[in-house]
Amino acid sequence: MRTRERWTFLAAAVLLVVVLPALNALPQGSPFWVSNFTLNLFGKFLTYAILALGIDLIWGYTGVLSLGHGVFFGLGAYAMGMHLMLEIGAKGVYQNVLPDFMVWNRVTELPLFWRPFYSALFTLIAVVVVPGIVAAVFGFLTFRSRIRGVYFSIITQALALCAWLTFNRNAMNLGGTNGLSGFKTMFGFPLNEASTQRGLYVVTALCLCVAYLLCRWIVRSPAGRVLVAIRDSETRVLFCGYSPAAFKLFVFTVSAALAGVAGALYVGQVGIITPARIGVLPSIEMIIWVAVGGRGTLIGPVVGAFGVNWLQSLLTTHYPDLWILVLGGMFVAVVLFVPDGIVGTAQKLMARFGAAKTPEPAAARSEEAKAVEVTPR
Q1: CA distances from 205 to 10, 19, 75, 238, 324 (A)
Q2: What is the pTM (predicted TM-score) of this model?
Q3: Which residue among 44, 172, 335, 336 is least packed, with the fewest CB closer than 10 Å?
């Protein structure tokens, strides 16, 4: 990591992990106090940033557009939500060891696939492994069949629709359209206390830093160069003796695992997960975050996730009917006028400005030659 990049990363990490929680811990009414609502909102945006980093790996660097990442986000969220529901125990409305929605639906015994989620360790493994396994199986079937381009995008969109329909069914014993909510504790810590939310925010910020370093390590490694080569010309990579399917399967699995982690952290921040977060529309919104920020830059998806969701938070407060139009217009404008996104365009302008200030090597050599000619021997 270059010196400027290293210091920028450290400054951003200190701001997110140390400064903001410290400001939140100040006495209420202090001029620099950050409210619990703002910190919680930032925590939600951080989970989106982790998800956007994963999408940037598969789309920005590999050129594979996935329109179904809401599924992997939802799998991680539901895995964590099931554990939090079981943590409630007999403290629910009906004072039954079964979750309240199961009592409403007259379920008399906890379904077998719920029981492993009593274990916190199993849950933490599941939020990573379950989305990863689903992505690995799905990717193996599609990439090995050489399904790519717009066909892959359509299939992933169909996956999101199928998952949305499946999770909406009450027969799944996952809460149906109401999803999972009413959580009281997270690993024994009360979720309604400010200190718990502050700690969850710090964990989320640390996960974002680790996710960024992991993605940077992947894209800067030799495998990352192959991913970029696949994006630019998959046929040429195939002729060079590499297996594009294996590389795409690897990065698709990593991307899904990151989405699962983001979903698990999202549940703690927001306190609810419903099928509405795993359907087609949220999956497309995730793509817009990356497109607006700038795909293929790692920083761009983080900026896009923060910027778009911050704008959504502002507009839906004052003009709730206007937001969806703004979102669509934003995507069209980015595709037509700034296809590299905010960060990608800024990097190109900075590179062009730097090149304009630096003399051309040929011109520099010419100046040196003139100087030699006029210098008396």
Answers
A1: 13, 11, 21, 39, 28
A2: 0.90
A3: 336
